[in-house]
Amino acid sequence: MQKSNMPMKGAEDRISSEPCEQGIGSGRLTEMKRKRAQATRRCRLCENVTYRIIEMQGMPRAVQTLLTAEGVKEDRTAVLQVVRCKVCGLVQLTDDPPRGHYGGNYLFSVNFSEHAMAYQKDLAERWVSDHGLSGKRVLEVGGGDGYFAELLTGMGCDVTFVEPSPGACSIARRRPLRRVVEGMLTEKTFAGEVFDVVVLRQVLEHVPRPLRFLKLVRTYLKDGGKVLIEVPNIDSIVERGRYQDFYAEHLLYFAADTLTRAVVMAGLKVQEMYTIERGDYLVCVSEVWPPKLDAMAKGIAKYKRDVRSMLESSIRAGRKVGVYGAGGRGVSLLALIGAGDLGVEYVVDADEKKWGRFTPATHIPVLSPQVLRKEPVDDLLITAIAFQDEILRQLSWFARSGRRIGVLSPRPRWLGEAGESDSVSPKRENPDADCMEGLC
Protein backbone atom coordinates (compact mmCIF):
# COMPACT_ATOMS: atom_id res chain seq x y z
CA MET A 1 0.00 0.00 0.00
CA GLN A 2 1.45 3.40 -0.93
CA LYS A 3 1.74 6.11 1.66
CA SER A 4 0.04 9.44 1.21
CA ASN A 5 2.15 12.08 -0.52
CA MET A 6 1.52 15.40 1.25
CA PRO A 7 0.96 18.30 0.89
CA MET A 8 -2.19 18.17 -1.24
CA LYS A 9 -3.31 21.03 -3.49
CA GLY A 10 -6.76 22.28 -4.43
CA ALA A 11 -8.25 25.23 -6.29
CA GLU A 12 -9.32 27.10 -3.17
CA ASP A 13 -6.72 25.78 -0.77
CA ARG A 14 -4.04 27.78 1.02
CA ILE A 15 -0.97 25.63 1.72
CA SER A 16 1.57 26.13 4.46
CA SER A 17 4.26 24.03 6.10
CA GLU A 18 4.19 25.92 9.39
CA PRO A 19 2.42 24.60 12.52
CA CYS A 20 -1.22 25.60 12.22
CA GLU A 21 -3.55 27.40 14.61
CA GLN A 22 -6.15 25.59 16.73
CA GLY A 23 -9.38 27.01 18.03
CA ILE A 24 -8.91 30.34 16.22
CA GLY A 25 -11.91 31.99 14.59
CA SER A 26 -11.99 33.90 11.31
CA GLY A 27 -10.15 37.17 10.95
CA ARG A 28 -6.55 38.26 11.12
CA LEU A 29 -4.49 36.89 14.01
CA THR A 30 -2.09 38.96 16.01
CA GLU A 31 1.43 37.62 16.27
CA MET A 32 0.85 36.76 19.94
CA LYS A 33 -2.26 34.72 19.13
CA ARG A 34 -0.46 32.98 16.29
CA LYS A 35 2.41 31.90 18.57
CA ARG A 36 -0.04 30.71 21.22
CA ALA A 37 -1.95 28.65 18.63
CA GLN A 38 1.25 27.15 17.30
CA ALA A 39 2.34 26.19 20.81
CA THR A 40 -0.92 24.29 21.48
CA ARG A 41 -1.22 22.47 18.14
CA ARG A 42 -0.77 18.85 19.13
CA CYS A 43 -1.54 15.54 17.46
CA ARG A 44 -4.81 13.95 18.52
CA LEU A 45 -3.09 10.55 18.77
CA CYS A 46 0.44 11.03 20.10
CA GLU A 47 0.33 14.70 21.22
CA ASN A 48 3.38 15.69 19.21
CA VAL A 49 3.57 18.79 17.02
CA THR A 50 1.66 18.92 13.74
CA TYR A 51 2.15 21.00 10.60
CA ARG A 52 -0.51 22.36 8.27
CA ILE A 53 -1.17 20.57 5.00
CA ILE A 54 -4.15 22.45 3.65
CA GLU A 55 -6.85 24.95 4.66
CA MET A 56 -10.31 24.64 3.11
CA GLN A 57 -12.55 27.71 3.29
CA GLY A 58 -16.35 27.87 3.25
CA MET A 59 -16.94 24.25 4.22
CA PRO A 60 -20.07 22.87 5.97
CA ARG A 61 -19.89 22.60 9.73
CA ALA A 62 -21.58 19.20 9.32
CA VAL A 63 -22.32 17.24 6.15
CA GLN A 64 -24.67 14.58 7.52
CA THR A 65 -27.24 17.04 8.92
CA LEU A 66 -29.17 18.84 6.18
CA LEU A 67 -30.79 22.19 6.90
CA THR A 68 -34.41 23.29 7.16
CA ALA A 69 -35.47 26.55 5.55
CA GLU A 70 -35.09 28.26 8.93
CA GLY A 71 -31.71 26.61 9.41
CA VAL A 72 -30.41 28.14 6.20
CA LYS A 73 -30.75 31.60 7.73
CA GLU A 74 -28.56 30.67 10.68
CA ASP A 75 -26.06 28.53 8.79
CA ARG A 76 -22.38 29.31 9.23
CA THR A 77 -19.52 27.79 7.28
CA ALA A 78 -16.30 26.38 8.69
CA VAL A 79 -12.63 26.53 7.85
CA LEU A 80 -11.15 23.03 7.78
CA GLN A 81 -7.53 22.98 8.85
CA VAL A 82 -5.96 19.70 7.71
CA VAL A 83 -2.72 18.94 9.54
CA ARG A 84 -0.27 16.09 9.82
CA CYS A 85 1.70 14.94 12.85
CA LYS A 86 5.46 15.37 12.48
CA VAL A 87 6.09 12.20 14.48
CA CYS A 88 3.35 9.60 13.88
CA GLY A 89 2.20 10.95 10.50
CA LEU A 90 -1.54 10.92 11.28
CA VAL A 91 -3.55 13.29 9.08
CA GLN A 92 -6.28 15.07 11.03
CA LEU A 93 -8.51 18.12 11.39
CA THR A 94 -7.83 20.70 14.05
CA ASP A 95 -11.37 21.54 15.19
CA ASP A 96 -14.04 19.30 16.69
CA PRO A 97 -17.63 19.17 15.37
CA PRO A 98 -20.22 21.29 17.21
CA ARG A 99 -20.90 20.05 20.75
CA GLY A 100 -23.75 17.54 20.88
CA HIS A 101 -23.61 17.01 17.11
CA TYR A 102 -23.92 13.22 17.26
CA GLY A 103 -26.66 13.33 19.85
CA GLY A 104 -28.96 15.39 17.61
CA ASN A 105 -30.41 14.43 14.27
CA TYR A 106 -27.20 12.94 12.90
CA LEU A 107 -28.08 9.88 10.85
CA PHE A 108 -26.21 7.77 8.35
CA SER A 109 -28.24 5.05 6.65
CA VAL A 110 -27.60 2.66 3.77
CA ASN A 111 -31.20 1.55 3.21
CA PHE A 112 -31.48 3.62 0.03
CA SER A 113 -28.62 1.81 -1.76
CA GLU A 114 -28.64 -1.80 -2.94
CA HIS A 115 -24.88 -1.65 -3.42
CA ALA A 116 -24.23 -0.37 0.11
CA MET A 117 -26.52 -3.01 1.62
CA ALA A 118 -24.85 -5.78 -0.41
CA TYR A 119 -21.43 -4.50 0.64
CA GLN A 120 -22.35 -4.63 4.33
CA LYS A 121 -23.84 -8.11 3.92
CA ASP A 122 -20.63 -9.37 2.30
CA LEU A 123 -18.53 -7.80 5.05
CA ALA A 124 -20.70 -9.29 7.81
CA GLU A 125 -20.45 -12.75 6.25
CA ARG A 126 -16.69 -12.41 5.93
CA TRP A 127 -16.19 -11.34 9.54
CA VAL A 128 -18.50 -14.01 10.95
CA SER A 129 -16.72 -16.68 8.91
CA ASP A 130 -13.13 -15.48 9.41
CA HIS A 131 -13.44 -14.85 13.13
CA GLY A 132 -16.00 -17.40 14.23
CA LEU A 133 -18.46 -14.81 15.50
CA SER A 134 -21.54 -17.04 15.52
CA GLY A 135 -22.60 -17.53 19.14
CA LYS A 136 -20.16 -14.85 20.37
CA ARG A 137 -20.99 -11.68 22.30
CA VAL A 138 -20.49 -8.74 19.94
CA LEU A 139 -20.59 -5.06 20.87
CA GLU A 140 -21.16 -2.71 17.94
CA VAL A 141 -20.32 0.90 18.74
CA GLY A 142 -21.77 3.71 16.63
CA GLY A 143 -23.76 1.32 14.48
CA GLY A 144 -26.00 3.95 12.83
CA ASP A 145 -29.47 2.65 12.00
CA GLY A 146 -28.62 -0.92 13.09
CA TYR A 147 -28.52 -2.56 9.67
CA PHE A 148 -25.10 -4.16 10.16
CA ALA A 149 -26.06 -5.29 13.70
CA GLU A 150 -29.19 -6.90 12.25
CA LEU A 151 -27.03 -8.78 9.73
CA LEU A 152 -24.74 -10.06 12.50
CA THR A 153 -27.74 -11.08 14.60
CA GLY A 154 -29.18 -13.05 11.69
CA MET A 155 -25.85 -14.89 11.41
CA GLY A 156 -26.00 -16.11 15.00
CA CYS A 157 -24.17 -13.35 16.88
CA ASP A 158 -25.34 -12.06 20.28
CA VAL A 159 -25.19 -8.34 19.46
CA THR A 160 -25.29 -5.40 21.85
CA PHE A 161 -25.72 -2.10 20.01
CA VAL A 162 -24.80 1.41 21.23
CA GLU A 163 -25.39 4.57 19.18
CA PRO A 164 -25.54 8.27 20.24
CA SER A 165 -28.11 9.45 17.67
CA PRO A 166 -31.74 9.28 18.87
CA GLY A 167 -33.00 9.11 15.28
CA ALA A 168 -30.71 6.19 14.44
CA CYS A 169 -31.66 4.36 17.63
CA SER A 170 -35.33 4.81 16.79
CA ILE A 171 -34.78 2.90 13.55
CA ALA A 172 -32.54 0.32 15.20
CA ARG A 173 -35.21 -0.48 17.81
CA ARG A 174 -37.55 -1.51 15.01
CA ARG A 175 -35.08 -4.17 13.94
CA PRO A 176 -34.83 -7.61 15.59
CA LEU A 177 -31.99 -6.54 17.88
CA ARG A 178 -31.84 -7.88 21.42
CA ARG A 179 -30.29 -4.81 22.99
CA VAL A 180 -30.13 -1.20 21.75
CA VAL A 181 -28.53 1.44 23.99
CA GLU A 182 -28.73 5.15 23.16
CA GLY A 183 -25.72 7.30 24.05
CA MET A 184 -21.96 7.59 23.81
CA LEU A 185 -19.81 4.67 24.96
CA THR A 186 -18.31 5.38 28.38
CA GLU A 187 -16.78 3.29 31.15
CA LYS A 188 -20.24 3.15 32.77
CA THR A 189 -22.28 2.13 29.71
CA PHE A 190 -21.73 -1.60 30.21
CA ALA A 191 -19.91 -1.59 33.55
CA GLY A 192 -18.73 -5.06 34.54
CA GLU A 193 -19.44 -6.59 31.12
CA VAL A 194 -16.96 -7.95 28.59
CA PHE A 195 -17.44 -9.04 24.99
CA ASP A 196 -15.74 -11.40 22.58
CA VAL A 197 -15.63 -8.79 19.81
CA VAL A 198 -16.10 -5.03 19.45
CA VAL A 199 -17.09 -3.73 16.00
CA LEU A 200 -16.09 -0.18 15.01
CA ARG A 201 -17.33 0.48 11.50
CA GLN A 202 -16.83 4.04 10.25
CA VAL A 203 -16.48 5.23 13.83
CA LEU A 204 -12.84 5.82 14.73
CA GLU A 205 -12.40 8.65 12.23
CA HIS A 206 -15.01 10.65 14.19
CA VAL A 207 -13.28 10.34 17.59
CA PRO A 208 -11.45 13.43 18.95
CA ARG A 209 -9.20 11.40 21.26
CA PRO A 210 -8.57 8.09 19.50
CA LEU A 211 -6.09 6.64 22.02
CA ARG A 212 -8.39 7.27 24.97
CA PHE A 213 -11.30 5.77 23.05
CA LEU A 214 -9.44 2.62 21.96
CA LYS A 215 -8.23 2.06 25.52
CA LEU A 216 -11.86 2.32 26.65
CA VAL A 217 -12.89 -0.22 24.01
CA ARG A 218 -10.14 -2.55 25.25
CA THR A 219 -11.66 -2.60 28.75
CA TYR A 220 -14.81 -4.16 27.27
CA LEU A 221 -12.91 -7.06 25.70
CA LYS A 222 -12.22 -10.50 27.12
CA ASP A 223 -8.62 -11.65 27.14
CA GLY A 224 -7.97 -12.64 23.55
CA GLY A 225 -10.96 -10.60 22.39
CA LYS A 226 -10.88 -8.80 19.04
CA VAL A 227 -11.64 -5.34 17.68
CA LEU A 228 -12.81 -5.16 14.07
CA ILE A 229 -12.17 -1.66 12.69
CA GLU A 230 -13.22 -0.14 9.37
CA VAL A 231 -12.15 3.42 8.47
CA PRO A 232 -11.77 5.53 5.30
CA ASN A 233 -8.36 5.08 3.66
CA ILE A 234 -6.36 8.33 3.29
CA ASP A 235 -4.17 6.71 0.63
CA SER A 236 -7.22 6.20 -1.58
CA ILE A 237 -8.37 9.80 -1.03
CA VAL A 238 -5.01 11.17 -2.14
CA GLU A 239 -4.34 8.76 -4.99
CA ARG A 240 -7.78 9.38 -6.52
CA GLY A 241 -7.82 13.12 -5.81
CA ARG A 242 -11.07 12.89 -3.84
CA TYR A 243 -10.51 15.91 -1.64
CA GLN A 244 -14.23 16.31 -1.04
CA ASP A 245 -13.76 13.40 1.38
CA PHE A 246 -12.38 15.92 3.88
CA TYR A 247 -15.25 17.14 6.01
CA ALA A 248 -15.92 18.33 9.52
CA GLU A 249 -17.23 15.10 11.03
CA HIS A 250 -14.14 13.13 9.95
CA LEU A 251 -11.43 14.29 12.31
CA LEU A 252 -8.92 11.52 11.55
CA TYR A 253 -7.60 10.17 8.23
CA PHE A 254 -5.80 6.88 8.64
CA ALA A 255 -3.32 5.02 6.49
CA ALA A 256 -2.23 1.48 7.35
CA ASP A 257 0.79 2.68 9.33
CA THR A 258 -1.04 5.27 11.41
CA LEU A 259 -3.95 2.93 12.13
CA THR A 260 -1.45 0.29 13.26
CA ARG A 261 0.23 2.82 15.52
CA ALA A 262 -3.07 3.83 17.13
CA VAL A 263 -4.08 0.22 17.77
CA VAL A 264 -0.71 -0.75 19.25
CA MET A 265 -0.58 2.33 21.49
CA ALA A 266 -3.91 1.22 22.97
CA GLY A 267 -2.52 -2.18 23.98
CA LEU A 268 -3.88 -4.14 21.04
CA LYS A 269 -2.02 -6.38 18.60
CA VAL A 270 -2.71 -6.14 14.86
CA GLN A 271 -3.65 -9.53 13.43
CA GLU A 272 -4.58 -8.44 9.94
CA MET A 273 -4.83 -5.29 7.82
CA TYR A 274 -6.42 -5.07 4.38
CA THR A 275 -8.35 -2.74 2.08
CA ILE A 276 -11.88 -3.27 0.79
CA GLU A 277 -14.42 -1.55 -1.46
CA ARG A 278 -11.88 -0.84 -4.22
CA GLY A 279 -9.36 0.40 -1.67
CA ASP A 280 -11.63 3.10 -0.21
CA TYR A 281 -11.67 1.55 3.28
CA LEU A 282 -9.09 0.06 5.59
CA VAL A 283 -9.96 -2.92 7.80
CA CYS A 284 -7.87 -3.65 10.86
CA VAL A 285 -8.36 -6.82 12.90
CA SER A 286 -6.71 -6.55 16.30
CA GLU A 287 -6.76 -8.47 19.58
CA VAL A 288 -6.09 -7.81 23.24
CA TRP A 289 -2.37 -8.07 23.84
CA PRO A 290 -0.77 -8.49 26.27
CA PRO A 291 -3.39 -10.05 28.59
CA LYS A 292 -5.05 -7.61 30.93
CA LEU A 293 -2.98 -6.95 34.04
CA ASP A 294 -5.72 -7.98 36.48
CA ALA A 295 -5.88 -11.42 34.85
CA MET A 296 -2.09 -11.62 34.91
CA ALA A 297 -2.03 -10.74 38.62
CA LYS A 298 -4.52 -13.52 39.38
CA GLY A 299 -2.44 -15.95 37.34
CA ILE A 300 0.75 -15.06 39.21
CA ALA A 301 -0.97 -15.44 42.58
CA LYS A 302 -2.29 -18.89 41.67
CA TYR A 303 1.05 -20.03 40.23
CA LYS A 304 2.91 -18.89 43.34
CA ARG A 305 0.36 -20.61 45.59
CA ASP A 306 0.47 -23.89 43.63
CA VAL A 307 4.26 -24.18 43.54
CA ARG A 308 4.76 -23.16 47.16
CA SER A 309 2.08 -25.57 48.38
CA MET A 310 3.88 -28.43 46.57
CA LEU A 311 7.03 -27.81 48.55
CA GLU A 312 5.24 -27.02 51.81
CA SER A 313 3.20 -30.22 51.75
CA SER A 314 6.35 -32.31 51.26
CA ILE A 315 8.26 -30.57 54.04
CA ARG A 316 5.30 -30.83 56.45
CA ALA A 317 5.26 -34.58 55.74
CA GLY A 318 8.88 -34.82 56.88
CA ARG A 319 10.34 -35.13 53.40
CA LYS A 320 13.53 -33.37 52.34
CA VAL A 321 13.13 -31.12 49.30
CA GLY A 322 15.69 -29.94 46.76
CA VAL A 323 15.57 -27.93 43.53
CA TYR A 324 17.26 -28.56 40.19
CA GLY A 325 18.19 -25.41 38.29
CA ALA A 326 20.04 -22.27 39.41
CA GLY A 327 19.52 -20.40 36.16
CA GLY A 328 17.66 -17.13 35.89
CA ARG A 329 14.18 -18.70 35.86
CA GLY A 330 14.96 -20.97 38.80
CA VAL A 331 16.37 -18.14 40.89
CA SER A 332 13.38 -15.97 40.02
CA LEU A 333 10.89 -18.72 40.90
CA LEU A 334 12.48 -19.37 44.29
CA ALA A 335 12.17 -15.68 45.12
CA LEU A 336 8.61 -15.50 43.77
CA ILE A 337 7.38 -18.27 46.07
CA GLY A 338 9.45 -17.12 49.04
CA ALA A 339 11.44 -20.35 49.18
CA GLY A 340 14.03 -18.91 51.57
CA ASP A 341 11.87 -19.68 54.60
CA LEU A 342 10.59 -23.08 53.47
CA GLY A 343 13.60 -25.17 54.41
CA VAL A 344 14.75 -26.24 50.93
CA GLU A 345 17.94 -28.29 51.40
CA TYR A 346 19.83 -27.10 48.33
CA VAL A 347 19.70 -26.21 44.64
CA VAL A 348 21.72 -28.33 42.21
CA ASP A 349 22.98 -27.22 38.82
CA ALA A 350 25.16 -28.82 36.14
CA ASP A 351 27.18 -25.61 35.69
CA GLU A 352 30.21 -25.99 37.95
CA LYS A 353 30.78 -22.21 38.00
CA LYS A 354 27.68 -21.95 40.19
CA TRP A 355 28.76 -24.52 42.80
CA GLY A 356 29.47 -23.18 46.26
CA ARG A 357 27.42 -20.03 45.74
CA PHE A 358 23.96 -19.02 47.00
CA THR A 359 20.77 -17.98 45.25
CA PRO A 360 20.00 -14.24 45.42
CA ALA A 361 17.12 -13.20 47.71
CA THR A 362 16.49 -16.75 49.04
CA HIS A 363 20.12 -17.65 49.98
CA ILE A 364 19.87 -21.37 49.25
CA PRO A 365 23.23 -23.11 48.59
CA VAL A 366 23.96 -24.21 45.01
CA LEU A 367 25.74 -27.56 44.76
CA SER A 368 26.87 -30.12 42.24
CA PRO A 369 24.31 -32.72 41.11
CA GLN A 370 26.64 -35.28 42.75
CA VAL A 371 25.02 -34.36 46.05
CA LEU A 372 21.83 -36.09 44.91
CA ARG A 373 23.62 -39.42 45.48
CA LYS A 374 25.68 -38.47 48.51
CA GLU A 375 23.00 -36.55 50.45
CA PRO A 376 19.77 -37.32 48.60
CA VAL A 377 16.52 -35.48 49.10
CA ASP A 378 13.12 -37.14 48.95
CA ASP A 379 11.57 -34.73 46.45
CA LEU A 380 13.32 -32.75 43.72
CA LEU A 381 11.64 -29.89 41.82
CA ILE A 382 12.98 -29.10 38.34
CA THR A 383 12.83 -25.36 37.66
CA ALA A 384 14.85 -25.44 34.42
CA ILE A 385 11.79 -25.71 32.15
CA ALA A 386 13.77 -25.39 28.93
CA PHE A 387 15.82 -28.47 29.87
CA GLN A 388 13.04 -30.36 31.68
CA ASP A 389 12.87 -33.39 29.36
CA GLU A 390 16.65 -33.70 29.24
CA ILE A 391 16.95 -33.56 33.03
CA LEU A 392 14.17 -36.12 33.45
CA ARG A 393 16.08 -38.56 31.26
CA GLN A 394 19.28 -37.97 33.19
CA LEU A 395 17.54 -38.45 36.55
CA SER A 396 15.60 -41.62 35.72
CA TRP A 397 17.60 -43.41 38.48
CA PHE A 398 16.35 -40.84 41.03
CA ALA A 399 12.69 -41.67 40.45
CA ARG A 400 13.41 -45.42 40.53
CA SER A 401 14.86 -45.10 44.02
CA GLY A 402 11.43 -44.27 45.47
CA ARG A 403 11.82 -40.50 45.38
CA ARG A 404 9.67 -37.98 43.56
CA ILE A 405 10.46 -35.49 40.83
CA GLY A 406 8.39 -32.32 40.44
CA VAL A 407 7.89 -30.34 37.24
CA LEU A 408 6.45 -26.93 36.41
CA SER A 409 5.32 -27.56 32.82
CA PRO A 410 2.60 -27.77 31.67
CA ARG A 411 1.54 -27.19 35.29
CA PRO A 412 3.18 -27.60 38.71
CA ARG A 413 2.90 -31.19 40.00
CA TRP A 414 4.79 -34.18 41.41
CA LEU A 415 5.21 -36.93 38.85
CA GLY A 416 3.97 -40.35 39.85
CA GLU A 417 1.13 -39.08 42.08
CA ALA A 418 -2.32 -40.61 41.70
CA GLY A 419 -3.88 -39.46 38.45
CA GLU A 420 -0.60 -38.02 37.19
CA SER A 421 1.26 -39.33 34.17
CA ASP A 422 4.88 -40.10 34.91
CA SER A 423 6.72 -38.80 31.89
CA VAL A 424 10.18 -39.84 33.03
CA SER A 425 11.99 -41.30 30.04
CA PRO A 426 12.63 -45.07 29.71
CA LYS A 427 15.08 -46.69 32.11
CA ARG A 428 18.77 -46.86 31.27
CA GLU A 429 20.55 -50.16 31.36
CA ASN A 430 23.41 -48.60 33.36
CA PRO A 431 22.12 -46.57 36.33
CA ASP A 432 25.52 -44.92 36.71
CA ALA A 433 25.49 -43.58 33.16
CA ASP A 434 24.26 -40.24 34.38
CA CYS A 435 27.30 -39.84 36.61
CA MET A 436 29.49 -40.64 33.63
CA GLU A 437 27.87 -37.68 31.84
CA GLY A 438 29.01 -35.46 34.70
CA LEU A 439 25.55 -34.62 35.93
CA CYS A 440 25.49 -36.40 39.28
Walkthrough of the structure:
With 440 residues, the protein is an alpha/beta fold. The protein folds into three domains: 13-97, no CATH class; 114-292, Rossmann fold; 295-436, 3-Layer(aba) Sandwich (Rossmann fold). Helices cover 29% and strands 22% of the residues. The strands form three sheets. It has a seven-stranded mixed beta sheet with strand order 7-6-5-8-9-12-11, with helices on both faces. Strands 15-14-13-16-17-18 form a six-stranded mixed beta sheet, sandwiched between helices. A five-stranded antiparallel beta sheet has the order 1-2-3-4-10, with no helix packed on it. Helix 6 links the parallel strand 8 and strand 9 (221-232). Helix 3 packs across helix 4. The chain is elongated and about 100 Å long. The relative contact order is 0.08. The model is unreliable at 1-29, 32-40 and 419-440 (pLDDT under 50).
What distinguishing features does this structure have?
single chain, 440 residues, alpha/beta, Rossmann fold, 3 domains, six-stranded mixed beta sheet, 29% helix, disordered C terminus
CATH domain class of the largest domain: Alpha Beta
Distinct helical segment count: 14
> Uncertain segments of ≥5 residues (pLDDT<50)?
1-29, 32-40, 419-440
CATH architecture designation of the largest domain: 3-Layer(aba) Sandwich
- The percent of residues in helical segments reads 25-40%
Structural class, please? alpha/beta
How would you describe the shape? elongated
The tally of strands reads 18
Give the strand line-up of the largest sheet.
7-6-5-8-9-12-11
* Terminal residue distance: 59 Å
Rg: 31 Å
**What is the domain tally?**
3
CATH homologous superfamily of the largest domain, by name? Answer: Vaccinia Virus protein VP39
What percent strand?
Answer: 15-25%
Mean pLDDT: 85
- What do we call the CATH topology of the largest domain? Rossmann fold
Largest sheet at a glance?
7 strands, mixed
